[in-house]
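Retro notes - structure team

What went well: the batch runner handled both jobs without manual restarts.
What didn't: labels got mixed up in the shared folder, which is why I'm recording both outputs here explicitly, each with its sequence directly above its C-alpha cells.

Job 1
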Amino acid sequence: MPESADPPRADPPRGADAASHDALWFTEVVRAYSTALVRYFARRGPRQDADDLAAEVFATAWRRRDDVPDDAVLPWLYRTAGFTLANHRRKTIDVPVDEVPEAGTVRVGEDPELAALFDAELRGALAAVGERDRQILLLHAWEGLDGEELAAVLGISRSGADAALSRARKRLRASWGERMSF
C-alpha cells in the first residue's frame, strides 16, 4: 500500500535556483517512497540487494526528474523498479521468494514442513501464471496498487489494468487449485 500521497512539486519561488528546487523535490520523493521501494525489492529478490536496487531507481528518478509525472510519482517509481529488477535478474541465477507477505492469514502456523510445502505450492502457482500475470498480482497484493496506479505502472488504461488484474486472479486461482494439496 502506498505510504503517502505524491509529494507536491510546486513551482520554484522567483529567483530560486532550479538545482536547489530539484534537490528539495528529490529529497521529498526519497523520504516519501524509499521504504515502499525497498519493500518492493525485498519481496521479489534477495533482501541484501533491496537497498541497492532502490538506490538505482532513485538515481534514475534523479536523472529523469523532468519525466516523472507530478501526479503519479509512486507508479512511475514502481514501473522503473520493475525494469530495474528485470535487469538485475538477468545478472543473477536464483531469485528466491523468502516469505509470504507480512500481512494476511497465517495458513501453516509454526509447522516448518507445512510452511515448506505451502511455499513450494505458492511458488509453483505463481510461476505457472506467467511473468506479466505474476507482476500484476504482486503489484496488487504486495504493493497495494489497483486502479489508476496499477494502470500507470503497467503503461495501460485503467480498464485494461482492471481486466488484466481480473484475468491474472483467475489464472492464479486455477493454478493454485491444481496444486493445493492440504
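Job 2
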Amino acid sequence: MLRVNGLAHVNQLVDDIDAAESFYTDVLGARTFWRQYDQDENRDACLFLVGDVCIELFAPRDEHSLLGAALARYGNSWHSFEWHVPDLDEARVALVERGVRIPVDRPGAFLMTHPADCHGMLLELSPLTMPGDPRAEPGWGPASWRDRDPLGITGLHRVTVAVRDLTAATGWLTGLLGVPAPAAEHRRELDADVVSVPVADHVVELVQARQDTGPIADHVRRWGQRLRSIELGVTDLDRATGHLRGRGLRVEPGSRAGAVAIAAADNWGVRWELAAG
C-alpha cells in the first residue's frame, strides 16, 4: 500500500504567475515562501500559504511540456495535489504494481502519476520538505498566520475529485491506501453520490453525478475526471464571505450544506469552498 504522511500542497496552472501571486497576496493574504524556474519543464513555480494551506502555482512558458499542454487545454485551472510520503521508492513500487504510469519521475525528489490510471487523480508524491516552508519551523501554528489571514482559515478539509465511476474510483483509492471503503452518500446540493476517503490530515472526496445534468456532470463533460475543488475551514463564515465580497469576488453556494464557494472565474479559474469549522 501507499503510505502518506499528509497533504503537502495543491497545484494550480496559471498563465501569469506574477499576476496570480499578486492577487492571492493582496486579496487573500497569501504568503509566498519559495519561487523557482525549472529548466527541464520550462516553467515558473511558486509556493504560498493561505493560513496553513499551501498552494503551488505552475506557469509554463510554452506548450511543449506536459504542464504547457495542460495549460493550453484547460486554461487556468487545478492541476494536481501533492502527498508527502516517507519513502519515494516504496511509493513508486506501490503505483507500478497497480499499473499506474509515471510520466514525470525525479528519483529522490518527486514523481507524478498519469491521471488516466488514477480515475482522474493526478498525484504528485514527494518525501521532501520545501526550502523555507514555515510549517516546518518550530512554533508554527495558528498564531503564525492569524493576524494576516483575512479569511480566518483553520485548515484544509477536503479535496474533491469528479469521477465517472464512483465504485471503481473508491476501490482503487482505498486499495492503494490500504483503508476500508466508506459508504457512499447522496449529496443533494450536487445531485451526486459522494464517498469521503480519509487520508492522513485531510479527506479526498470522490463525487459522481446521478444524472447527465448538474454541476458534476457539467464538470466531467468539460474537464473529464479531474480535481474539482478544495474546501477550507474558517472560523467565521460570515466574516470570510464579507471580506470576499468587499474585494469584489462573487460568492456562490457551496457543494454541501453550510459551505460557500468563490466563483472560479474570479479566482484564477479554480474553485475554493469555505465552511465553518
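One thing worth noting from job 2: Residues 150-276 form a domain with the 2,3-Dihydroxybiphenyl 1,2-Dioxygenase; domain 1 fold (CATH 3.10.180.10).
We'll revisit the folder naming next retro.
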